[in-house]
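Sat 14:20. Reprocessing the chain from the morning session after the first attempt stalled halfway. Input below, unchanged.
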Amino acid sequence: MLESFEVSDIFPVSPEELYSAWLDSKKHGAFTGSKAKIDPKVGGKFTAWDGYIEGETVKLEPNKKILQKWRTTEFPEDSKDSKLELIFEEVDEGTKLTIKHSDVPEGQAKNYKPGWDESYFQPMQEYFE
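Finished this time. Tokens:
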């Protein structure tokens, strides 16, 4: 059975800055501390965390939403890609980023949910402060 979860955090930057940084290979690599390669267009492929994560961008709504197919090297070989929806919402403190992660292989959500905080949100807070 596939699993889903949602995580969010607020960052002290504009939606435009956060959105563009997510899709920029150098900035994405800088805020995660590991290599990323991103083709920032619909149909564009990406890798992050030195190839641990890979996928394809499905839809872009500039400064508002990114939809991606997403998988890690830990996905079973016959597993379909999971779905990643990133929502950028302007708030008084900057931008609220909500990540809705669905179609995660059974038993893996318990690792990925805290992983978003540890491997993305915490280093992003340091990068953007």
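The two ends are 39 Å apart (CA to CA).
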